[in-house]
Amino acid sequence: MNYTLNQLRIFLKITHTGSITKAAEELHLTQPAVSIQLKNFQEQFEIPLTEIVGRQLYVTDFGKEVAALAEQIIDCVGELDYKTHAHKGQIVGRLKISTVSTGKYVMPYFLADFLHQNPGIELVMDVTNKARVIESLEKNEIDFSLVSLLPETLSVDYIRLMQNKLFCVAGAGEQSYNSQPAGNIFEQTPMIFREQGSATRLMMEQFIRENGFQVSKKIELTSNEAVKQAVIAGLGASIMPLIGIKNELNNGELHIIPVHGLPVTTNWYLAWPRGKKFSVAATAFKYYVQKEKEVVINKRFRWIEDF
Question: What CATH topology corresponds to 5-84?
Fold first, then answer.
C-alpha cells in the first residue's frame, strides 16, 4: 500500500458528494485530476471502491469501510498537526464561525478561554439568520456553524453542545395568562413570531400545529432581541429560547406561562461540512470543544436545569 493523505482526502470528498465533478469543485481541482487520483487509489485495492451504474457513481460497501477508516486517519493526522503546533506555540490563523442569532448567547462562552489561550488566532463570527448560516455551510465558507436544528439537506458532522429549551413567555403585566387554558392564550393573545426561516419560528409553528391551537393574530419581527422587547412591552406573547431571556426572567420583566408540552427541548450543535479539511486554528478549536465542553456547560449554563 502506498496511498497518500491527499488521495484519502479526495476519496472522502467523493464519497461525501457522490460525484467526481462535485468533489473537484469543492476541492478546487480539475475533474481529470480527481479522476486520476481516484484511479491511483483504487489500484491499490483488489476490491472495487466505487462503481458506475448508468451515469451515477456509487460507493461500494467495501469503499464505505475504507472511507470510514480514511476519516479516522485524517482526524488523527489533524490532531498530530494540532499537537505539534501547540507544542511549538504556533497556533495562529483565522477562525471563521457563523451562528444563528440566538447563538450569540452561547458561542462566546465556548470561545473565550480558547482565544485567551491562543492569542494568535483571529476570530471572525457572523451572527445571522438560519438561512444564511445554512448557506455558509453549504458553500464551505466557514469553519463551524452553531445551529439549534441540523440541516436536513446537507451532509454535516457535528458536536452536540448543550440543551436548548423554549418556553411560552409574556411581559410582567400579563399574569392573567397563567390561569387561562393554553388554547385561549394562543387564540386570544397576539403571538409574536420570528421571521420565516428562523429555527425558533419553525419550532414554535410545529408546537402550535401539533397541539391544534389557532392563532388569531400574528406579529412578525426579524430578531430575537426585537421579539423580546415586544413581549416585555406587552405587545403579545411568544415562544422563546430560554438562553436569551435569563436576565429578564430574573428581574421580572418576563415570566413563563405554564403550557402543557413546553418547554420544547432541542440541542445546540457545532456543525461543519462533512469531509472538511480543517486549518490548524479550526483543528485546535474542534479539539478544545470536544475536551472542554462539559467544563464550559457546568461553569456557564448549569442554571438552565433550574427551569
Answer: Arc Repressor Mutant, subunit A (1.10.10)
